[in-house]
């Protein structure tokens, strides 16, 4: 049966807040994984731009003794070339971790706010919450 308008609004706010928290958790996890995996690219491109004479032209000792303009350009090119495979690796790591933790199943439908009787339940295998009536075979992707 449908909920009252006030109760529907309160449940809708609760579900929206919970979905926002799960979204922020997914975003934080993705940010951490991409930062760690892309760190070599970030470092290589940073040193390439820092030591190039037409970009930043740092007066650091390693820029004067080790890196000239051609080696700085090579670092910049190398950084952008290795970025593509590392992005694929980072996305694969995030997807496998999100699948293992079942983070994408935690989002709740707004129909829980509209009708009484819908509640959260725990799966038998210790997985995250899901709406009543969810299949235990539910997957975020195949």
TrEMBL record:
Transmembrane segments: 20-49, 74-94
Keyword Transmembrane: yes
Keyword annotations of the record: Membrane, Transmembrane, Transmembrane helix
Compartments where found: Membrane
Membrane topology note: Multi-pass membrane protein
Main location: membrane
Domain of life where this protein originates: Eukaryota
GO cellular component: plasma membrane
Record GO terms (molecular function): PDZ domain binding
Keyword Transferase: no
PANTHER family to which the protein is assigned, alphabetical: TRANSMEMBRANE PROTEIN 88-RELATED, TRANSMEMBRANE PROTEIN 88B
Entry's family note: Belongs to the TMEM88 family.
Official protein name in the record: TMM88 protein
């Amino acid at each position: 049966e449908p909920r009252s308008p006030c109760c529907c609004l309160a449940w809708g706010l609760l579900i929206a807040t919970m979905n926002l928290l799960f979204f922020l958790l997914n975003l934080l996890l993705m940010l951490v994984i991409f930062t760690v995996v892309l760190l070599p690219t970030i470092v290589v491109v940073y040193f390439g731009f820092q030591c190039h004479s037409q970009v930043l032209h740092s007066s650091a000792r390693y820029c004067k003794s080790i890196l000239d303009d051609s080696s700085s350009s090579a670092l910049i090119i190398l950084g952008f070339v290795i970025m593509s495979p590392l992005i694929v690796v980072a996305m694969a790591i995030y997807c496998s971790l999100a699948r293992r933790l079942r983070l994408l199943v935690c989002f709740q439908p707004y129909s829980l706010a509209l009708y009484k009787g819908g509640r959260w339940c725990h799966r038998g295998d210790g997985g995250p919450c899901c709406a009543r009536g969810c299949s235990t075979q539910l997957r975020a992707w195949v």
